[in-house]
Amino acid sequence: MRCAIIAMVVTLVFAATAGAAEQQRPAAFPALESVLRSVKEADFCGETVPLHIVEVRERFEKDLLLMLWDRAQVILWLKRSSRYFPHIERLLDMRGMPQDLKYIAVIESALRNQAGSWAGAKGMWQFMPSTGRKYGLTVNRSVDDRRNFYFATKAALDYLQELYDRFGSWTLAAAAYNMGENGLERRIRDQETDDFYRLHLPPETERYVVRAVCARMIMEDPERFGFDLREEDYYPPLRFDRVRVKGRRSVPLIVVAKAANTYYKMIKDLNPQLLGDAIPRGNHAVFLPAGATEGFMRRYNPVLKAYREENGTDTYHVQPGDSLIRIARRHGVSLKRLRELNDLSAQCVIHPGQVLRLE
């Protein structure tokens, strides 16, 4: 009897494995050599990429090959595109700007809000702090709008439009976006040409536009390159509501989550620009799950009142592992202000159990 049971279990396991195998299939995609031969022409924002120039063709083929070799990365690009592209495409259409510009976000960050560079660039559009501030993004110890796709996209398109107005070419605008407009302008002047493909530029910038062209070529026609994604494989578009939260004190994110009938992680994920556990004092746009604004304000004040009655707002008891900067971010106050309120020097060490003023 025991042998029969074991045999039955083995049969069931084999059947389940066989069923899974039937749902899978071997990979099938064209040979890389044939892909390269099939590309006869290319453009960026309607501006021709001169593939007849050997050096340009080599640049193009190198990046196309690298992208096709990293198929897992391209699959993630494709899946994420349905989350973010609808909003970018809508803004580009409203502004009369070329749709190819959305591929800059792909090559900058692989469509990841949390992307960062060694140089300090952050977010899907990889803004440096100074450039982000110039185009209306808040960047400080408590809030970093570069990490918020919605805010950063508007700023990026403002910047790209200004670059196009300055250089008269979307190819040069993209190059300036990568290396900075002043550096590009200086090279154009010194080398006496404004032809991007004949300028000697930093290697990263020389590849920049070509990489965007390769990404577009693959993502606009994935089947051609052996990617077989179905409609259900793509991530759903990002949907959210917005409210404005105003106050003379910081507001813990858990209060917002409760008032929105959701959980902390959802609010944190929708608001990557908020670096701590609280919304800093002042007037801030806050993103909620789609539909959560209904009844939000009716619930918000009672939830906030109950939280403050239970937890207090003016003081904080230092916990093991705390640091001043972590406490400041958590409660939406600046590090400088926290030190001033508690008469602490830059070298001062805090201890568990110590009581700090927050207001």
What labels describe this entry?
359 residues, mainly alpha, two-stranded antiparallel sheet, 15 helices, disordered N terminus
Please tell me about this protein's structure.
This protein is mostly helical and 359 residues long. The protein has helices at residues 2-23, 32-38, 54-69, 71-95, 102-109, 129-134, 149-167, 170-179, 181-191, 203-220, 253-259, 264-270, 296-311, 324-331, 335-342; strands at residues 43-44, 47-48, 240-247, 251-252, 278-279, 282-289, 315-317, 355-357. The strands form four sheets. It has a two-stranded antiparallel ribbon. A two-stranded antiparallel sheet has the order 3-6. A two-stranded antiparallel sheet has the order 4-5. A hairpin with a 2-residue loop joins strand 1 and strand 2. The radius of gyration is 26 Å and the shape is globular. Residues 3-14 have low confidence and may be disordered.
